[in-house]
Fold this protein.
Amino acid sequence: MMNTFRIKGGQTLRGDFYPQGAKNEALQVICAVLLTSKPVRIKNIPEIQDVLKLIEILETLGVKITKNAKGDYTFCSEHIDFDYLKSNEFRRDGAKLRGTIMILGPLLGRFKEGYIPIPGGDKIGRRRLDTHFQGFKNLGAVFTYKEEEKFYSVVAKELKGCYMLLEEASVTGTANIIMAAVLAEGQTQIYNAACEPYIQQLCKMLCSMGAKINGIGSNLLTIEGVSQLDGTEHTVLPDMIEIGSIIGLAAMTQSEITIKNVSWDNLGNIPDTFKRLGIRIERKNDDMFIPSQKHYKIQNFIDGSILTISDAPWPGFTPDLISIILVVATQAKGSLLIHQKMFESRLFFVDKLIDMGAQIILCDPHRATVIGMNQEVPLRATNMASPDIRAGIALLIAAMSAKGESLISNIYQIDRGYENIDVRLRALGADIERIAT
Ligand SMILES: CC(=O)N[C@H]1[C@@H](OP(=O)(O)OP(=O)(O)OC[C@H]2O[C@@H](n3ccc(=O)[nH]c3=O)[C@H](O)[C@@H]2O)O[C@H](CO)[C@@H](O)[C@@H]1O
Ligand SMILES: C=C(OP(=O)(O)O)C(=O)O
């Protein structure tokens, strides 16, 4: 069944918002349970489409899963069904999301073989997997790709640690290589490693399972292989992308919102980047208070030139919040150049914002200039489909600020990353309804 959101915009929201656990961390640490035959308990798992699908795939793989409470699961990977891994069912199920790619590293590390169909995820431009496979090959694995079956396999007689310099700081690639290397023989050094909080959390969890990893949080990881890993307990951080989305929503709708328990120390430059758009953000212990603001003014650079916000590997600004920055800028005072460097098809949704009356010039697939309207002319309500997860939430924010009723279809693309977003926004006073179409 396809669902649509009906949104009556123009309401001011107010209240406390509790962020969900981080989707991209959950996908990594859930895959890591494959590294041990012992129970691993993970708390604060967001119960969103992508994560639930991964859990379902692990269950079919033979992992015993107990749900202790909402978002709190224990996984035990004593036996793995390699027949299923090579089956047609897996070729179909495994292709549904991006996160499944990260079962390869742990399977290769522990069993010396792993299989995966070409993974799904957002259609936001080319999404290469070269870094993953080059990393596995560096450790001694043989990589095969059957083009007609769209199926990858990695097998090794043994994995041997080595020094490697990654071609790019791929997030899921780094996670995959770490998970293979923790059980490889000897020392592995990964330079140009991604170091997002997702990766730091994965490393911390692996260390509590007995792995030996140094350099956590930096782009040089040194791993001493161990022969086996133990069980553990781990809690997923709040989702920094959801937190950024709510900052954007508060600013656009001139609302006063407190985002609870944000884990400030793991937000990097996200709060400061929104502040550069003139949005006031206050720290209150571990909560984030966003006061209601009639207007917000984009800062210029020191030399007076137009501000540019671009994405970069961590600790740079995350590409997953670029669409939100863009939509928020449409009602700021001033102009902004958005430069989405990593993905080439993530800005096309600006067409919809232009339909709603936003002043945006798409310069090329990577850059858009936004001329803010200073909340003087509201966006117009419209009907639209959500193209990808972050454009989806950006359009939802636009619809919440627009006068009148908007419809957003294809909201599966929002549900896969935001848990019950309609219910949680209604609690803040939003007029949003989920309708079956
Ligand atoms: C499930 C998951 O965790 N998904 C996240 C993960 O995807 P994922 O791990 O798939 O993304 P990668 O980090 O591999 O790369 C994303 C894109 O950026 C390009 N690239 C990457 C690194 C680099 O230094 N330069 C560069 O240009 C790649 O070529 C690719 O086109 O990281 C992305 C980048 O933060 C996020 O958007 C995704 O939400
Ligand atoms: C692009 C994203 O997700 P995925 O990598 O799962 O497609 C995202 O979370 O913004």
In short: The radius of gyration is 22 Å. The CA atoms of residues 385 and 409 lie 4 Å apart. The pocket of phosphoenolpyruvate (ligand 2) is lined by residues 23-24, 50, 98, 121-122, 320, 389-390, 417 (CB under 6 Å).
